[in-house]
Amino acid sequence: MPLEILVTMVVCGVVAIAIILHMSGRSAVVPLTEDSATRAWLRHSPDSAVQSARPAATGHAALITTEKGMGIVWCFGADTIARPLDTAKIEPHPKGLCLRFADFSTPSVTVILSSQERAVWKDAITAAPSPTVRSQKTG
Amino acid sequence: MSDTLNYPDVTQWAVPFFIAAILAEFLWIAIKGRGGRYETRDAVTSLIMGAGSVASGLALGVIAWGFFMILWQITPLDLGTSVWVILLCFVLDDLRYYWVHRLGHRVRWVWASHVNHHSSQHYNLTTALRQTWTGTFSFIMIVRAPLILLGFHPAMVLFVGGINLVYQFWIHTEAIGKMPRWFEAVMNTPSHHRVHHGRNPRYLDCNYAGVFIIWDRLFGTFVPEQAHDRPDYGLVHNIGTFNPIRVAFHEWVSIFKDMTQPGLSLKQRFLYAVAPPGYSHDGSRDDSATIRAKHLKRHPEDQGTAGFDRR
């Protein structure tokens, strides 16, 4: 098949599929509840015992407390991603907090929080019994 | 000996069919309200990975082709191009595919190329196209060598390999439940391949088939889909990125980081590259065996059931 036909077909196909999916509501995020955040965390870490799951007001992320420390679950497309926070770097962000992981496949997540939520989350994460959580002060 | 042989590039010619089938599957799901899920960024990432895989093949395919043609010059055998030879080549190439795929899950160096195909938490026809950009660097082309040395022309080997891949497109769907029993017994099907993509402990590292599921039955790696344990798709540790560059290279980066840690022996560094995914020099990570063991500790009632009864 001539390359120009193949490239045209592929580009047009990808764009058309993206538009159809977006216009049909397939870009919507399903907000987390306490229950769904707990289940999402246990999907990632079935051996841990969840002590609390605290969704943000937006429902896009939830702070998880387990017997091993703190973790976070966040909405990722129509699914979720979960990560422990023991080695995460916390940085302030205009919309809330930015959590950075030393992980090329999951470099960071920006959590949208109100100013009150931001303070609560930051205190909870830095107070957790783990020596490697580092917090950068606001510039 | 026949040096020039031309077969159509079936994967390229199948592109219009792929696009039409994806739209049809999406329409089915939208109308019926079941049979799978679609999400915009996940699907677009999968499609970009597919396009990149084709581009990578066009750019780097000359390396594998050169290797195969050297083997073709070496071998004294030439089985010709009859229909029966093509059929035999197809079956033997599918056996080759089984072992390549098994190595792809059990040798981290090969897994680094294959992992991105499993990195979607969805299972639909776009997932079928979420393919590697780095296959050339896995050196897995070596497994095709016996076929060429046996007298199958490289062009024929690649042609039947293309048909094998096109066959596997349609099995990446939740819209089809089970095929007729006789079909499920012999062929790879959506049901068998859903199991392969499952990150459930019972479903890890099984059903490696390309076209014929008989190889899994023969080599003890077959696990049937369980109605009470629906496949949960994705990786044991799902990746949190839609960036195709990160999707394509993340496991290679991880291998590099692990191998270059301070304080390791040469053997430990080597094992980080070639041991099964989940290997760690200090036992801090889980591989598929320990994941299954931990699951059985939590759920002893699953002992001896499908996926937990492997030899």
Could you characterize what this model shows?
The complex is a heterodimer of chains A (139) and B (311). With 139 residues, chain A is α+β, with helices and mostly antiparallel strands. Chain A has 2 domains: 1-27; 34-135. Chain A has helices at 3-23, 34-44, 115-127, and strands at 50-55, 61-66, 69-76, 79-84, 89-93, 96-100, 108-112, 134-135. Chain A is elongated, with a radius of gyration of 19 Å. Chain A starts with a helix and ends with a strand. Chain B has 311 residues and is mainly α. Chain B has a domain at 10-182. Helix content of chain B is 54%, strand content 0%. Chain B is built from 14 helices and no strands. In chain B, α4 (83-106) crosses α8. The longest helix of chain B has 35 residues, at 40-74. Chain B is globular and about 60 Å long. The termini of chain B are far apart. The mean pLDDT of chain B is 96. The A-B interface holds A 1, 3, 6, 9-10, 13-14, 16-18, 20-22, 24, 26-27, 43-44, 46-47, 74, 76-79, 81, 83, 104-107, 109 and B 9, 12-13, 15-16, 18-19, 22-23, 26, 30, 37-44, 47-48, 51, 54, 58, 121-122, 126, 232, 234, 237-242, 246-247, 249-251, 253-254, 294-295, 298.
